[in-house]
Design brief:
heterodimer, A: 259 residues, B: 308 residues, Rossmann fold
C-alpha cells in the first residue's frame, strides 16, 4: 500500500468480501430462514387473520403488512448481522489482526456496516419477492422505497455494530435486539395503522422511532402514511446521526476495542 | 538510523488502575533478532500490543522506521507482522482465503504467487483449501505465521511462538526465523522458554513487573553474568571440608563424593589453579573433573531474584 494513500481500499474490499462470503456460507441461516418466517407471517396474519380484517386506508390487509414485515426483518437482521460480525472476532480474539492493520476506523465502518447493510437489503428484496407471491403489490415511489430501505439498513447496521462492540457476552449481544428492537417493531405499526389505536396509546406510539421508519416505508409503497413523510425521513436521519456520533466516540476513545 | 523500532517513555495503566508498563525505553536494531524475556504477566504482550496498535498507550511514543505509531499509523503498521500468542483464527475460513484476506487488510495488491510461496515455506500448501478449524494445533500456528508474513513485513513480532509446539515444528520455526533474518527482517520474539532466546537471539531484554531491567547482547550477557561451575568427583568420600579450603565456598555433595566450585568467569576470587593446588596439599584426590557454563536460564532466574 502506498502509505500516503488517503484510503486503504484494498482492506475495505477484503473485509467486505469476507463478510459477504460468511453470509453465503451460512445461506440457510441468512436467507432461507427469513423467507420461511415471512411466509409464515403471510399464512397467519395475511390469510388466516387478515381475511377477517377489511381494508386499511384502502389497502388490503395482506398488502398493508408487507412494508412492516420488510422493516421487521431489515431491523433485526441489520442489527444481528453487524453486531455478530464485529463481536465474533472480538470473542475469538482474531480482532487483533484488524486492530494491527493499517486500517482507519472509517474503513472498518464502511466495510463492516456496508457488508451487513448489503445483506439485509438483499434480504429485504427477497422478502418483497416472496410477498409478491402472496399478495398484489404496488410501489408508488420506488426511489423513496429504495432510499428508506438503504437508509434503514445502514442506520441499523451501524446500531448493530455499536452493540457488537459494547457486548461482552453472547447474552448481551442478544439483549438489545430481543428486549428493545423486537417489541418496538411489533408496536411500531407493522401489522396495523396507529390510527387504529385508542387516543393515549397513539400518543405513546409517537415516541417509538420505529413508527416513523415503517410509516415512511409504507408511504413509499401505497402513498399513505401514519405520520408525514418528512418527519419519517427526519427521524431516520436523526437516528443515523446519533449512531454516527456514538461510533465516533467509540473510536476516539478506543472503547472496548483498544483497552 | 540503525534502530527500526524506538520506544520511549511508554507507560500503560489499565482502567482497573493496574500499571502494566512503567516507563519503557527500548530500541530495536534493524535486522536483529531480539528476545524479550520475562515471567508471565511481566508486560511482554502489553508492550507488543502497543507497538502493533492493538492497545492504546497511556503515555510515551513509539516509532517504527521513523513513523510515529499514532500520527503515521498506516506507514508504521504496514511494516509490522504480528503472530500473537493465542491461536485466534476465524475457524470457518479456508487457509487460502484467510491468508489472502490478511494481505488485503494490509493494503497489498493480490499476489497469488507470493501467498503460494509463503504457504509452501510453511508446509501448508497441501492444506490451502482446508478450513482452519480442521487443522492441528501446530498447523494453526503455522497459519498464524503465514498470515503475518502475507504482507511482506519488515518487522516480525512472535509472541511466545513455540508455546505448546512440538520439537520438530520448533526446529522448523527457528530455521524460518533465521531465513527471515537473512532477508533483512527484524524479529522480536517474546518467550519464557529461555533456551529459545539462547539459541536464536542477538540481543536479550528482560522485562519484569512492567519494567525493562536489562538489555544486553546475548554473548555479552552470558559473559558478564554467566557463572562457571567445576565439579570434582572424589576418590574417597569426604566427611567434612578441611578448614584450609573455606575461602573457596565449596559445596560438598550429600554423599561426600563430589565437590562443586562455582565462580564468576570475571571475578578475582581465587582461581581454579590454586584450588587444585590446595586440594592436593590437603590430601584430597579426585578421579574426574567437569566444568560447565551457566545457561541463560540460570542468569535470568538470578536476575529476577535480585529484583526487590
Amino acid at each position: 500500500m502506498n502509505p500516503r494513500a488517503a484510503m486503504n481500499f484494498r482492506a475495505v474490499w477484503a473485509i467486505y468480501r469476507m463478510e459477504m462470503a460468511r453470509a453465503f456460507r451460512t445461506v440457510l441461516q441468512s436467507i432461507v430462514s427469513p423467507v420461511i418466517s415471512t411466509s409464515l407471517y403471510f399464512v397467519v396474519f395475511g390469510s388466516a387473520i387478515g381475511s377477517r380484517i377489511t381494508e386499511i386506508d384502502g389497502i388490503s390487509y395482506g398488502a398493508f403488512i408487507v412494508p412492516g414485515l420488510m422493516m421487521l426483518s431489515l431491523l433485526t437482521q441489520s442489527i444481528s448481522n453487524a453486531s455478530f460480525a464485529i463481536y465474533f472476532p472480538k470473542f475469538v480474539g482474531s480482532i487483533y489482526e484488524l486492530l494491527s492493520a493499517p486500517v482507519s476506523y472509517l474503513e472498518i465502518i464502511i466495510a463492516y456496516v456496508g457488508g451487513a447493510a448489503t445483506k439485509s437489503i438483499m434480504l429485504g428484496l427477497i422478502i418483497l419477492a416472496t410477498a409478491a407471491l402472496f399478495v398484489p403489490l404496488r410501489i408508488e415511489h420506488p426511489f423513496w422505497m429504495i432510499a428508506f430501505l438503504v437508509l434503514t439498513a445502514v442506520t441499523f447496521s451501524l446500531f448493530g455494530f455499536i452493540i457488537g462492540i459494547w457486548a461482552k457476552t453472547f447474552e448481551q449481544l442478544q439483549l438489545v435486539p430481543l428486549l428493545i428492537v423486537t417489541p418496538l417493531t411489533f408496536l411500531g405499526g407493522s401489522f396495523y395503522s396507529i390510527h387504529m389505536l385508542p387516543g393515549i396509546w397513539k400518543t405513546i406510539t409517537l415516541f417509538n422511532p420505529v413508527v416513523y421508519l415503517i410509516s415512511g416505508f409504507r408511504w413509499s409503497f401505497y402513498g399513505k402514511a401514519d405520520v408525514s413523510v418528512g418527519v419519517s425521513l427526519g427521524m431516520t436521519l436523526v437516528f443515523l446521526a446519533a449512531c454516527i456520533a456514538i461510533v465516533a466516540w467509540i473510536f476516539r476513545t478506543g472503547y472496548r476495542l483498544r483497552n | 538510523m540503525s534502530s527500526i523500532i524506538s520506544i520511549s517513555g511508554v507507560t500503560k495503566t489499565y482502567a482497573t488502575g493496574f500499571k502494566a508498563l512503567k516507563e519503557i525505553n527500548l530500541d530495536i536494531e534493524r535486522g536483529e533478532i531480539f528476545a524479550l524475556l520475562g515471567p508471565n504477566g511481566a508486560g511482554k504482550t502489553t508492550l507488543i500490543s502497543i507497538v502493533c496498535g492493538i492497545v492504546n498507550r497511556s503515555s510515551g511514543s513509539v516509532t517504527v522506521d521513523g513513523h510515529d505509531i499514532g500520527r503515521d499509523y498506516r506507514a508504521a503498521r504496514s511494516l509490522i507482522g504480528l503472530v500473537p500468542q493465542e491461536l485466534t483464527i476465524d475457524a470457518f475460513e479456508t487457509v487460502w482465503a484467510t491468508v489472502n484476506y490478511s494481505r488485503g487488510l494490509f493494503g497489498k495488491a493480490p499476489d497469488k504467487a507470493f501467498v503460494e510461496k509463503v504457504l509452501r515455506d510453511l508446509s501448508l500448501w497441501d492444506k490451502k483449501d482446508a478450513k482452519a478449524i480442521t487443522l492441528s494445533g501446530g498447523m494453526k500456528r503455522r497459519l498464524m505465521i503465514a498470515k503475518a508474513l502475507s504482507h511482506e513485513p519488515r518487522v516480525l513480532f512472535l509472541d511466545e511462538p513455540t508455546a505448546g509446539v512440538d520439537v520438530e515444528l520448533r526446529q522448523d520455526m527457528w530455521a524460518m526465523v533465521r531465513r527471515l533474518r537473512e532477508d533483512g527482517v527484524t524479529i522480536i520474539l517474546t518467550t519464557h522458554y529461555i533456551e529459545e532466546a539462547e539459541a536464536m537471539a542477538d540481543r536479550v531484554g528482560v522485562i519484569n513487573r512492567g519494567e525493562i531491567i536489562l538489555v544486553e547482547g546475548k554473548a555479552e550477557l552470558m559473559r558478564k553474568l554467566g557463572r562457571k561451575q567445576m565439579t570434582l568427583e572424589l576418590r574417597a568420600p569426604l566427611a567434612a571440608l578441611p578448614d584450609g579450603l573455606a575461602r573457596y565456598a565449596l559445596e560438598l555433595s550429600a554423599d561426600g563424593n563430589a565437590l562443586t566450585y562455582t565462580y564468576d568467569s570475571q571475578s578475582d576470587r581465587p582461581g581454579v589453579a590454586s584450588l587444585i593446588r590446595d586440594l592436593e596439599a590437603a590430601g584430597i584426590q579426585f578421579h574426574d573433573l567437569d566444568t560447565k557454563n551457566s545457561t541463560l536460564e540460570e542468569i535470568f532466574v538470578n536476575l529476577l531474584r535480585q529484583e526487590p
